[in-house]
Write a structure and sequence with these properties.
The protein is an alpha/beta fold. It contains 14 helices and twelve strands.
Length: 341
């Protein structure tokens, strides 16, 4: 089957990572799968022309609004994968809500990463409940063995001779919903007292205007560093070398960066929001903070208590192995796509 897969490809994290995995799953089952970014198309008629020209037989869109709206009225069957901001944020806007409801009505199926995400969608569109499936994200990490850690530190302008370096890594596309500046002030203050503490924010410039704000703020914040995105294998290797991975998002569907850190035996400190709380059990598989001060307090407890760190890392790894199997995700999408035939 010739499949069109619509997903925002501007960021290496989030929807783009999910899209890459799903493309791989479907191609392994013998389908021809073409990945396109919805931002390259103005409206559904442009997508209809693409479908005709490339003879697509079915489609799959990640994000009910960004991708789904372009498939409205489509002549081919399609499925939807909720992205996160569609159900958590776009649902609050009247026009987007109307469009998403219409798209969901036409879709053969929809996929939610969590029970909570399914319930939020079903509360808005009760008739769609029976077609919403829950499939957690499957995780596979591939750290590059030849990764150059010293060059990474050099690029971040972190002195390589720092004794007892404690590096925290915040992985996100630079856009407001990810709130990468949330911890900058408190980190700088902490770094002034303890110069071996550093925060590296790494990810693509998704929102150019916001990226310039981030640049400006980080340039004035000692101990905080900004890096452009790097290849996935290098990123996984960098995660393995850091002290902890941080997530300060205002909203998340299901953070691949958090799950990948868990798989790589690295503790996670994440903002206490529904998407993060769905995959982190506080003080069991990670640490959840409600404000910057609590973040510092929890980080210090992690640094001063090796037993706590070891227990969190062990339980988090077991959680990912049990609930985020890459093989289970593969089988699920290969089965779901049969509904589009």
């Amino acid at each position: 089957m010739r499949l069109l897969l619509l997903a925002c490809l501007r960021a290496r994290t989030g929807n783009a990572t999910t899209a890459g995995r799903i493309q791989d799953h479907l191609e392994a089952a013998g389908h021809i799968c073409s990945l396109k970014d919805p931002f390259g198309y103005e409206n559904s008629s442009e997508i209809a022309n693409l479908i005709s020209a490339e003879k697509f037989e079915a489609a799959l869109a990640i994000h009910l609004y960004k991708g789904g709206r372009l498939l409205q009225g489509s002549r081919i069957p399609f499925g939807i994968i909720f992205g996160g901001t569609d159900i958590n944020e776009d649902i609050k806007h009247e026009e987007k809500h109307r469009v998403m409801g219409a798209v969901l009505e036409e879709a053969r199926f929809a996929v939610a990463f969590t029970e909570k995400m399914k319930e939020l969608a079903a509360a808005e569109w009760p008739d769609a409940r029976s077609k919403i499936y829950i499939q957690t994200q499957g995780i596979m990490t591939t750290p590059r063995a030849t990764f150059n850690w010293n060059r990474f530190l050099q690029n971040a302008e972190i002195p390589q001779d720092t004794d007892n370096l404690r590096l925290f890594l915040l992985i996100c596309g630079l856009r407001r919903v990810k709130d990468p500046l949330y911890l900058v002030d408190v980190f700088s203050e902490w770094h002034r007292k303890e110069p071996h503490i550093h925060l590296v924010i790494i990810g693509p410039a998704v929102d150019p205007l916001f990226t310039s704000e981030v640049n400006e703020k980080v340039n004035r914040a000692p101990g905080v560093h900004l890096l452009q995105e790097i290849p996935q294998d290098d990123l996984h290797a960098a995660v393995k070398r850091c002290f902890a991975v941080v997530n300060s998002s205002l909203s998340e569907g299901m953070s691949a960066a958090i799950l990948e850190a868990m798989d790589l035996d690295v503790p996670v400190l994440a903002r206490n929001i529904p998407g993060n709380a769905a995959i982190i059990q506080h003080k069991e598989t990670g640490l959840l903070f409600t404000d910057p001060q609590e973040f510092v307090q929890l980080s210090k407890s992690l640094m001063n208590d090796p037993t706590l760190r070891r227990e969190i890392v062990t339980k988090a790894k077991a959680y990912v192995k049990k609930h985020h199997s890459w093989e289970c995700e593969r089988k699920a999408y290969q089965n779901l796509v049969l509904q589009l035939q």
